[in-house]
Write a structure and sequence with these properties.
By secondary structure, this protein is α+β, with helices and mostly antiparallel strands. The chain has one domain: Sandwich (Jelly Rolls), CATH 2.60.120. It has six helices and nine strands; from the N terminus they run βαβααβββααββββα. It has a six-stranded antiparallel β-sheet, covered by helices on one side. Helix 4 packs parallel to helix 6. The protein starts with a strand and ends with a helix.
Length: 232
């Protein structure tokens, strides 16, 4: 995890949040995620500042080198832009541990909420996975898919035990800073939000495409869950 402080100027944060306020009635995704031209537009706006473009160039170069060493080829996928807005009415969007499908994750907090224990902070597992393959990626993703469908209280218990075994670090995110990590090997999740709305722009770079087979399996698992819910 790398933190780049004071990268996003206050005037841009205000401008982006005002744009989100203007668009809130047009989209209300159930999971708070919105991948669209709007998210990309915000990223392009950030790239008008030298601090952000310098940071982005640096971290992308490092991620490309890591990708080439691990996969023996140059990355070729386009970035994925996601705008995420989560509030107290979305407790089911917390404690969802996952690995990203992309190698590089750039997290840009746009708006945070209170400083209590329920403010949506990022939690990352200290011990990263070292080895991976299509099969191991499939197994892990499939288990996490099932875990995500457990009741929130049970998910918290599972993660609490994992915290005892492997340890997690809480990352208190501050608007204006940018948080960078390898989401492909770092298990992470967010805490829940007790009040207000937490907003983040997330940019993912360099998909090694190990998830293609996984997506097929997960779609079948989802169909099975849907059938079970309907049947019983």
């Amino acid at each position: 995890m790398s933190v780049f402080e004071h990268v996003v100027p206050l005037n841009l944060l205000v401008q982006i949040n005002e744009a989100i306020n203007a668009e809130r009635e047009a989209w209300r995704p159930r999971d708070g995620r919105h991948a669209s031209a709007l998210a990309r537009q915000f990223a392009e706006l950030l790239r008008t500042t030298s601090a952000f473009t310098s940071m982005e160039t640096q971290v992308r170069a490092a991620a490309r080198r890591w990708y080439s060493r691990k996969f023996g080829q140059e990355p070729h996928s386009d970035p994925l832009y996601v705008l995420r807005c989560v509030n107290r009415d979305m407790p089911f969007q917390s404690y969802l541990r996952h690995f990203d499908s992309h190698v590089l994750t750039v997290l840009i907090p746009l708006q945070t909420v209170g400083t209590d224990g329920k403010n949506g902070d990022l939690m990352v597992r200290l011990k990263q996975r070292q080895g991976f393959s299509v099969l191991s990626h499939l197994v892990i993703k499939s288990w996490l898919f099932v875990e995500h469908r457990l009741p929130l209280a049970l998910r918290r218990i599972v993660i609490a035990f994992d915290d005892i075994l492997r340890g997690y670090e809480r990352i208190p995110c501050t608007p204006g800073n940018v948080y960078v990590f390898n989401g492909f090997i770092t298990l992470h999740h967010n805490l829940d939000v007790s009040a207000g709305e937490r907003r983040s722009l997330i940019i993912h770079y360099y998909d090694p495409e190990l998830a293609n087979a996984t997506r097929t399996v997960l779609r079948k698992l989802q169909a099975l869950f849907d059938w079970a819910n309907y049947r019983f």
